[in-house]
Amino acid sequence: MRPSVLYPLFAPVSSIRGVGEKHARLLANIEAEKVADLLWHLPYAVNDRRRVSNVTRMKNGEINTVKIRVVEHTPPKNRKQPYTVWTEDDAGNMLALVFFKVYPESIAKNLPVGGERIVSGRAELFNGRWQMSHPDYIVTPENSALIPEIEPVYGLTAGITNKFVRRLTAAALAALPALPEWLEPHFKQQEKMPSFAEALNRAHHPQSVDDLSPLSPARRRLAYDELLANQLALALVREKAKKQSGRQIAGDGSLRRQVQAGLSFSLTDAQERVLKEIYADQASPWRMLRLLQGDVGSGKTVVALLAMLNAVECGAQAAIMAPTEILAKQHFDSIAPLTDKIGVKTALLTGKIKGKARKELLAELQNGKIDILVGTHALFTEDVAFADLACAVIDEQHRFGVRQRLGLADKGRRADVLVMTATPIPRTLVLTAFGDMEYSKIDELPAGRKPVDTRVMPLEKTSDVIAAVKRKIETGERVYWVCPLVEESEKTDLAAAEERYDILRKTFGADVGLIHGKMKEKEKDEIMERFKSGAIKLLVATTVIEVGVNVPEATVMIIEHAERFGLAQLHQLRGRVKRGAKPATCLLLYGYPLSATARARLNIMRETEDGFVIAEEDLKLRGGGEILGTRQSGGEQFLLARMPEHQPLLFTANKDARMVAAADPELASPRGQALRTLLYLFERNEAVKTYLAG
What we know:
The chain is an alpha/beta fold. Helices cover about 40% and strands about 15% of the residues.
């Protein structure tokens, strides 16, 4: 139950005086549906409304506040003309107040001829004369205090004014109850952090531009509170997961030794280290919930296979789930030849398998004849029943939430869960999105893997690129040509791909193929098979080929309008040509104008192939927005915290939360009770419920 002290903050915005149904609907557009939402809606700028001494000291195009005397009214002669009120300052300098939306009676009442007023608004020089259109404030000198000297500026939506949001925020701050202090006293003192209430008041009443900085004391305090709520929620769930009884999976190693003996390569030190961590998890009496990060081509699949074989050695079953049918089939094609040799039955389940074949496969799965099942997310539909699932591996893109991760293993008797990703994730995102999991990192590529020759060149050289592609194809090599992202619209992306395909067909004829996201799965599979077999030598594609597709003979990756892609996408695409033994080339073709961020991205791609370095640089370039180019990356969308500015606070919050979860998992101590309030305040109460439900 939410603590009663928080009830005023969780009341709807319509509970504030003056907010009717219409305003409530409009406020929903800025995600302000309850009183607390107004507290999190911080200003992004300030208006300086300190008074200037006279009209000549005003700044053109900026907010100005000045005392004037009304001289004359000039009503419009027709609807197209504005209503002008002529005024002057104490020195006789003229200022025209211009009104396009005319209410003559109201204007006459507010600005009587001869009356003195203080006006504040954006002033401009127009035809050599100063004018102010629709002043924000018109007050008498005795009411000058009604004009704030430094005014916070909020994000707005149509029909909502800054003045209105300021009034509502004042009401929300007035409704803020006295809350217990949840920060550790020594840390609060050391970091010179204000109290929570003081931080909110300062954040909503900035006195300068410096107060808007993420590094200002008020904003650091609020960011830490949000990060601590996030980290504590994950730490509590993690603590519970660690205590959930699992299976002690510790095979005799017989199957794993046979597979390793049949491999054409030795495992890297990083793979060996990660396997040690996974085996220790599997052997413990608690359930494994682990994230495995590994760069493109680092050998995650073989690690996953050995972890699954550990379960099979114990007489249980394992499953590996991929996001697409292409990837599921690819996993099956690489795993099945190895398992067939050692008498382990591996099967593939995708949407294509229907009718009698599906029924037979599901029956074999249920009676334990299938040891390893490979498939898409359909593996976890109701009709799929395992005899004894002990290890579930989820590959790429499936970023399950905490609740799904905890419930996923219910297909088996407390099955271990291993989540794999080829998108190297910055430590920040690991903590905020996957904090409920242990994590391992394969930070080493197999020996002998040649670096990709990455070149950056302007689109004007496309004809030279086509000539070079022709030479490569003549030597039997295969080439990807990825077409640009156009305003994130699949329709126009497709148009760009079709246009490039038509141009290239004039040179390459039947050697060129086209693949895109609008195709049916069957069509995509057919095109990819033809590319793999060499029937197609040049594949024009949208980013549908970004993840996981394995064609060792493809040695050239051309990315058109590379400046439009995120760093992670460029890195994933380049990874498509790191699969074979031959040297590979990646050409990044860019168009003008080139922004500073785009130029930095292309330079990073040219300088490094380390996916973890690239991920950290991506975080710096993108800031706290949509990190790694896609929402599926697991990026936490914070209300108050900003990355990378608040990254040190995140690491501190992570340590603090882990200590609390270990020492006071029931949140029963005085600080624990205060932290429980924090969790409910930032709506992380699901974690509390999940944990305390036992």
